[in-house]
Amino acid sequence: MDPQVLNRKKQLPWTVWLSVGIIVLMSLVALFASVISPYDPTRMQIGQSNYPPAWYHTARGDGHAEHLLGTDIYGRDIFSHVLHGTRAAMFLALIAIPLTALIGTLVGVLAGLGNKTTEAIFLRLIDIVSAAPSFMFAVIIIFILRATPTGEIFGGLITLTLAFALASWVNLARLVYTSTLRIKQQEFMGAARSLGAGLLHQIFKHILPHVSHLIIAWVVSNVPAVILLEALMGYIGIQILQRTDGTSFQDLSWGGLIFMGRSHLKTNPFMLLIPTLCILAISMSFSILGEYLSERTNPQLESSQII
User: Fold this and answer.
1) What does residue 29 show for φ and ψ, rounded to 5 degrees?
2) pTM
3) Closest to 49 in 3D by CA, of 67, 27, 37
4) Which of 127, 169, 191, 221 could form an S-S bond across to 290 if both were Cys, CB 3.0 to 4.6 Å?
5) Residue 112 to residues 118, 119, 207: CA-CA distances in angstroms?
6) Residue span of the structural domain in which 164 resides
7) Would you say 104 and 276 are in contact if contact means Cβ atoms under 8 Å apart?
8) CA 71 → CA 19, 53, 104, 209, distances in Å?
9) Which residues contact 292 (CB under 8 A, 6 or more apart)?
């Protein structure tokens, strides 16, 4: 291969570097939110309610330097809320997406390697789950699980994680199923079966190594989906704010801030704008990184097949 072409392939686009930087920054913020946050985001100070951002000037008064993004109606520091809200977003990205990938991969591989009966059962399961829009299916699961002990964990964050995982695995399952069918027809798979290779051996030694690039690209590309789902749930009021004793995420999610910010557009639009920009930044970063990984691992694969 031409050395210039090889060199060009080794160079990462600046957009990928920027995306990785944003993801690392958000991860560090989520990890050290309690350390870098200037205030306890759950502490209410009624005498300091509805402060505008520090640099913002309104007819009601100027902002205060100690509250960079101002305060909400209860006097809670919005900047601290944004920092702690990163935890909910990254938690969903690191837990919900791998769980979804596990379900989708398992169903896709078993459907592709199984007999006709097994294949028919898994394909019908895929059809049933995909019959309704994933968002509506997730809402139904949330309302069902909220009445169970699961709905109390982390103020409903675990419920949202399970809802996304149970509603969003279908696309990956179809992708893995199609690839598994193609791989199963290869000569090396026939040789493995003739030598007595069991199901687990076929899956871990032959199938997964050949579909791992699809799974990785799907995982990275679909992280924005779960973050946007949380924001959308918060916007319609199905948010992470079930408890007020300080032991849950309570309001400490970008979706919860957006929900509260709707009624403060005139007094403090940054309550809605800042978490929206955070969601946009992290979503675009994961999308760009996912597209790059997709192209690097399988140049023939169309981006639309991944997402």
Assistant:
1) -60, -45
2) 0.71
3) 67
4) 221
5) 9, 7, 10
6) 95-307
7) no
8) 30, 8, 42, 51
9) 12, 13, 16
Number of domains the chain is built from: 1
Rounded Cα–Cα distance for residues 270 and 70 (Å): 8
User: Which of 25, 71, 29, 74 lies closest to 270 in space, CA to CA?
Assistant: 71
With H, G, I as helix, E, B as strand and everything else as coil, classify residue 71: strand
Beta strands in the chain (DSSP E): 57-58, 61-62
| Coil, helix or strand at residue 77 | strand
Look at residue 89 and tell me if it is in a domain: no
Domain CATH code at residue 189? 1.10.3720.10
Residue 34 has phi, psi (to 5 degrees) of -65, -30
- Establish if 41 belongs to a structural domain: no
For residue range 110-156, what is the model confidence (pLDDT) as tens digits?
A: 888 878 888 888 888 888 888 777 778 888 887 787 777 766 666 56
**Share of the chain residues as helix, strand and coil, in percent rounded to the nearest 5:** 70, 0, 25
Question: What 3-state class would DSSP assign to 124?
Answer: helix
